[in-house]
Write a structure and sequence with these properties.
By secondary structure, the chain is α/β, with parallel strands linked by helices. The chain has eleven helices and 14 strands.
Length: 332
Amino acid sequence: MILVTGGAGYIGSHTCVELLNAGKEIVVLDNFSNSSRDVPEKIARITKKEFDTIEGDVCDPETVRKLFSDYPIDAVIHFAGLKAVGESVEKPLLYYRENLSGAVNLLECMRDFGVKRFIFSSSATVYAADNPMPLTEESRLGCTNPYGWTKFMIERILEGACKADPGFSAVALRYFNPIGAHESGLIGEDPKGIPNNLLPYVARVAAGKLDCLSVFGDDYDTPDGTGVRDYIHVCDLARGHLLALDYAFGRTGIDFINLGTGKGTSVLEIVRAYEEASGKKVPYRIAPRRAGDIATCYADTEKAKRVLGFCAQYGILDMCYSAYRFTEGTDD
C-alpha cells in the first residue's frame, strides 16, 4: 500500500489516479489547507476504485504514527507542504517549520515501521539561478527563496537517511512547471484565493473572473522578450511518479531526477495557446520584471529517459485545452 501525503492536492490527485489505474492500493493523508474535500470522491469517480482518505496534518506525529499502525504501508509519496514562493519570502519561518517538520516526521515513522521507499516532490527551484541551460541533475544547486531552500534541505535530509540505512531508497523528483488538468475535467489546479501560478491566472482572466494578466517583463533575451519556462502536463508528471516508485523498489540509496519536457515556452506563447484552446481573449499588460526572475529555465530530461523510461507525451496546446475544460467545469 502506498501512502500519498497531500493526495487531494493538484499533483497529488493526478498521481493517485495513475496509481489506482495501475492497480496500486493507496491511502491519502491531507489537511485540505489548499485543496478541496471533494477531490478524493472525484478521484474515485475517475478510477472507479475506492480508497481511504485521512484528514490530518503530516506535521502531527500522532496522526502519522496511527496511520502507519492502521495500514500496511510499503512506500510513501510525499506531496504535502506549503508551496507558494512569494508567501515563503513573507513567512519564511512558517515554511521551514511546516515543510521540514513534515518530512522529518514521516521519515521517523518510516524508520520505526520499517518502510524503506520514499518518493519526494522536489523542485527545479533547488538549482542556482546562474546555471547554463538546460539544467541537468549535476547543475549547481542554490536557492533564491525559502520555499526552494526547504526542498534543498529535505533532499539533504534524505541523503542522510539513505546513508544511515543502506536499505533505504529515495527518489527526489525535481519538477519544472506543471500545468493542465485531467482529461475528465474533474480534477485540475484550483488554488484558493488569487493564483500564484501562470496558467490558473490566465484561465481566470479568460473566464472574466480576473481583469487582466500582468506579464512581468518583455525585455528578456528570449524570442518574444517574456520569460521562458519548461511546462509539463500534470498527467505526464503523475506518470513520472509511478515510474519513480517502480524504480525505487529496484534500488537503494538516493537519486535526483528532473521531470520536464526539455522545451521552453514563453509567457506570451502560453497566452496565445490558451486563447486558441479556449476561443477566448486573455487581456494582458506588461509589468516591470520581478526581482529574482530569470529569462530562461528548462530541463535536461535525458536522465529521466534513461533511468525511468520517462518521456513527456503532451504538448502546450493539450495542456491549455485540458486546463480550459477543467476551468469551465469549475465556473460558478
